[in-house]
Amino acid sequence: MFLCRCASYDQLRDATVRVCVCACVCADLNTYAALSLGIQWFVYLVHGLPQLSEKFYDASGSLTHFALVLAAVLSKSDRTRRQILLSVCAVVWLTRLGSFLFTRIMKDGRDGRFDALKRNPLRFLSAWTIQALWVFMIELPVLVVGDQAADAGGELVVSECVEERVFMMGKRKEGCLTRLLFPLRVA
């Protein structure tokens, strides 16, 4: 596995940047990468830096996920069932994760992981920049499939229908576990 062969954080970071640059150049995804970075930096500049707060960090991550999926869906007028299904699954996932994380930060009032980062504005900005990169990479399959022409084999096959059912079952189980475990979490 590639990650195991990286000797340092710098090598991992450089490899991640190379993969993202390659994906942007190969699939012409520069607009999506810029959108992801733009939303994160905007929230950092408007709320994170002036307030020295991470309160909207997770919410801005969900907003960025949603903006990328929405931009991919609206980028073309004709959509296949596969593109729509993949986009819906991404929105279901980001809504569940985002609502959980936002509820947690609102309940706790802060996230201790950011305490050391907030002392240095550039380091604090790096967290928002890394989140922009992470969101872009997570949504890359949605963006690449969404960029395909409608006649590029967009009809669902049996395996994709099974995958949809497994995804939905997993989401239900994840929701149940969250409701059970969230009250047990120690602040």
The arrangement of helices and strands along the chain is HHHHHHHH
Q: Termini separation (Å)?
A: 34 Å
Note the overall shape: flat
Question: What is the typical, i.e. mean, pLDDT?
Answer: 75
Number of strands: 0
Secondary structure tally, helices: 8
Percent helix: over 70%
How many domains, as an integer?
1
Structural class: mainly alpha
Biggest sheet statistics: none
> Which radius of gyration do the C-alpha atoms yield?
18 Å
Q: List unreliable stretches of 5+ residues.
A: 1-7, 23-27
Which percent range describes the beta-strand content? Answer: under 5%
Can you walk through the features of this model?
- By secondary structure, the protein is mostly helical.
- It has 8 helices and no strands.
- The chain has helices spanning 2-5, 9-27, 30-51, 57-74, 81-108, 121-138, 140-146, 158-181.
- The longest helix has 28 residues, at 81-108.
- The two termini are 34 Å apart.
